[in-house]
Predict the 3D structure of the following.
Amino acid sequence: MEFTSKRYGRSPFILIFIVIMLKMILFRHFVFQGIQAGQLLTDAAAVLSLLLLVEMITSAKWKGVVFGSLNALLSLLLFASTVYFSYYGTVPTYIALHGLDQVLQIRTSVDSIIQPLYYLFFADVAALAVLSVVNRVKGIRSEGRERIAKPSFTGIASILCVTVSGGYIWSGIAIPNEIVQAESLGFLDYQVAAAIKANKEKTALRSGSVEETAASADALQASYFDQAGDTASAGTPNYFGFAKGKNVIVVQLEAFQNFAINLSVDGQTVTPVLNQLAKESFYFPHVFQQIGQGNTSDAEFMSNTSIYPTGVIAMSTGYGDRVVPSLPRLLGEDGYESNTFHINDVTFWDRNRMYPALGFTAYYDKPAFENDHFNSFGASDEELYKVGLENLQALAKQNKPFYAQLVTTSSHHPFKVPSKLQRITMPDSLEGTQLGDYLTGLNYTDYALGTFIEGLKSSGLWENTVLVAYGDHSGLQTKDNDPAWVSEQLGIHYDGQISRFNIPLFVHVPGAEGKVVEQTGGQMDIMPTISNLLGISLKDKGYTAFGHDLLNITRNVVGMRYYLPTGSFFNNDILFVPGKGFEDGTAIDIRTKEPVADFSRYRDDYDYILELMKLSDDYVRLLPKRAP
């Protein structure tokens, strides 16, 4: 199976090409659940381009080593990308390699989604390694010639393959839907397309400015929305300054989906604390996640900044070196102390860079908590709240207003709660399932939040504090939880997209009556909503927000990407997901969860959200860097 000629000597070219193409087919099977002959041509052109380049520049002596190393590297990349897709639902680009060092921090979650079949990517690597050892023991040596292939036939073939690959890339690079683009271009050409796009963006930014981009964003939003639709008299927004001067606590609930609110299982209430909080607060049942590659850390970033994640890199990793306009900085102007609490090591997702970028006064991470070994992260939510409450009480005694962010972890995938701490019993049909474990995790998370609220009340902080609680992202993995099965088990209509991405948002304001706010929203809208309640005008402060105050809009368009393709959005009526573009997209009613056949009237929302997210990307990329 070796390529042999008098000119080039012996080469494993043909063998390696066949092996890599088999792996490309395997990758398409795992990720796209289908293999089309026409799409394999894109893979073949890309693979041949790469192999022919190696064939031309590598001497015969080293061809076996180089081709073998290349095969092993591609095997690893395809394996990692398959696992990545299983976890995130998107095909990673080379930029995602920035986040590989975070994998060990969530290895319990990653290990639980790896299927044994994924190791087929390494079957030949293992076999060739064994064969190589055997050959060395027997003293077998390859007798290749010490020549480098001359660019006659090989060079012409390489140019042809590169040209074909270039044509595929040119035809598919404008597709906004990353999944469709990756399927159309194939794994290798998709990486090239990502590099071309990144270079174009970098070039375009050289002539841009933060001020001009912010002005464009403000103008776009002002022209698209009537922000005065339901504000109070004399132009004052509803609830403006209602909580002026009060402390603010934001609790980010790990992997918390909204369907669990007011849910009972086998006669047991899953979230009794949050059910009561919903009655006493502004409760927003139609809010959706908008996170990117950074998952939980992206949710922290968005809720504090009202800036979209770029989707190509965790915001903490990509922009932790910037001065980011944020809620901590905004409140710092009014003398607030801003503390954030997370029981993991602060280097996880580069929070040691993100927190200074956001302007937090102080952070508390792993060393600040007693490790009660709740899960692989360490301390439980109860320990998180105990330490948080102690620090906030100390600030209150100093008469310092505070902004506190607490990031929970006890309901993290794979949702294992120690048996002695489980407070709910699953029926036999859910025992041992991911859904059963998930509900048990949410029930504990709800209980722990209740202990924190009781602590705030007993310490006298409750009546002087705005409490915000929201889910950071979805928890249930669709591949492990068929929506029809979930619906049957829980007696609800569970949709694999609407229900999965729907997170709860609660805003408890002392003195305000509880109210269910039906307005559609996203995590981008948290900062503007809090600012309004505190009597802070973002416009007057010169802050650019890409979200909106949910208490003062009558319609909204909320963009999402990464877990859905770029161009996806939620509005007051539907979730829209593009195909190659708008016309071949799909839409689902966010309330009935039924397909919407005619979505043509929402074309403006699609164009608007693409433009808004582009401006948000440009804005954050143009932000000034912090002093070292």
Notes: The longest helix spans residues 60-88. The CA atoms of residues 270 and 439 lie 7 Å apart. The radius of gyration is 27 Å. The chain has 21 helices and 17 strands.
